[in-house]
Amino acid sequence: MLKITSLAMAMGLALAAPAMAQGVDQNPEAAGVRAALDHYIAGHATGSGAEHRQAFHDEAKLFWMRDGKFMQRTDDEYIAGSPGKPADDEAQRKRIVQILDITGDVAVAKVVLDYPTVTFTDYMSMVKTEEGWKIVNKIFNAKPKAKS
To answer: Alpha-carbon dihedral of residues 6, 12, 14, 18, nearest 10 degrees?
Structure first.
């Protein structure tokens, strides 16, 4: 449990720095938006589908390009791929929210997941629902790293 608590604290710090740099923390909705992003990041760090489930709206979709083809999947398909445990190289993975912009009951975020073999750049569209802030759309780019 201590590892997850430390992880949660580290994620909170990673989310706070970019938000404060852009003055987002002055927005009363900032904590709720960051909480949803914390669940998203924790889902990656722990492999927990339950964490991802808390981040995504039930109607969420994910979109990306692969080999020049437009791809998509539902949040349920995405969450079903959660392994239920951290990746073997979890200690070498870094995640940070680089951009956070909130207007009323909508927000956008840019999250960078820097992994040993690939860097993912995620752009999230978010809405405030009765259950709190949720990711409704995710588009992403995967950039493989050169092998060393």
So the answer is: -170
Yes or no: say if 53 and 15 are a contact pair by the CB < 8 Å rule.
no
Measure the CA–CA gap between 114 and 95, rounded to whole angstroms: 6
The domain spanning residue 16 has which CATH number?
3.10.450.50
pLDDT at 91 over 50: yes
For 136, the domain range is: 2-144
d(CA 96, CA 40): 11
Q: How confident is the model at residue 54 (pLDDT cuts 50, 70, 90)?
A: very high
Helix or strand (DSSP H, E) at 127:
strand 118-129
Return the ∠ at Cα 127 (arms to 72 and 135), rounded to 5°: 40
- For the chain, the domain total comes to 1
User: Which positions ≥6 away from 15 have C-beta within 8 Å?
Assistant: 34, 37, 38, 41, 96, 97, 100
More confident residue, 21 or 91: 91
What is the C-alpha to C-alpha distance for residues 139 and 21, in angstroms, rounded to an integer?
A: 24
Angle of helix 30-46 versus helix 2-21 axis, rounded to 10 = 140
Which two tokens mark 138?
Answer: 């995710």
